[in-house]
Amino acid sequence: MSPTTEPESSSSGRHAAPKTRTLPVPAVNFDEHVVPWRRRNFIICVIVPTILALVLLTCGDILVEIISELFGGLASLTPASPISIGSTIGRIVIVLLCVLLLTKLFRLKLPDLGMVRENRFGTWITGVGFGFAAVTIIYLLNVIFGALDVSFTLKASELWVLLLAAVFFAFQGFFEELLFRFFIIPAYAARITVAGAIGLSSILFAFIHLNNPNLTIFGLVNLVLYGVVFGAMYWRTGNAWFVAGWHSGWNFVLAMLYGSHVSGNALPGSVLSSSPSGSELLNGGEFGLEGSVLSTLLGIAIIAWCVKTNPASNTGLFARRTKPVSAEKRVN
Length: 332
Prior knowledge:
By secondary structure, this protein is mainly alpha-helical. It is 57% helix and 3% strand.
């Protein structure tokens, strides 16, 4: 995709999305997401968001289980899979409820959470495409090096499951990004450095996956790393749709097209079945391609690109923020 023009100013308000020379999506100044938090204290910016994110994650899982039970009569359509009509509806409901709660409780607007008004769907699709490309690169390299045994497994009667899974992962990925990137990172960044905010949110992101099956040390390292990757993307673009699309596209393609484990979880109904064979360093073993050294290298490359192309308007990763000065002090 050809580059567009240099960043341009806009008169459409604080959250206008100027064009950018190096991105195929609308990007905004990340600092704009920090503005609503700057006059709030450490407890409101760090302690409360941390506890609230973990509570909402737990409550979200409970709500999804409850809704899944309500639609239990349809569960047989997707045997042995956590993806069902009920769980998909549950994911949609919890995302809507969380957005409503966060905006009302902290007096935030949707753009404060990175939900840029310009070209929402197109930007999300672009993110999905990048997620698809990233997984495919890692997958094909594993196939070339003989680190995966691949077979075609999809049955004609299961084709509809792919559509259901696409909706499920769209909201599952958005939910995790909403809590651990769009909400937490700007709040943290108002009191600590951006690097500290991304790092702390990434540790929390890895923490919620500690009970995942087949978790390895290398898989855990990559969970932290990809928390940094998505955090760096959000700092670089300020665009929630792009980051959420990438996360959802990555999970969907990995699970439903290539049939690899997603963070240690195996999901039936995929187009292909990909079993690890040979070097676990390449294929990630039973944890899946997210535990591969190739994923590590790709993640490092993405972070390096975000840092290298960071627009001057964004606060630097390690810059310390100064407390806002009141109007009275400025006059004196």
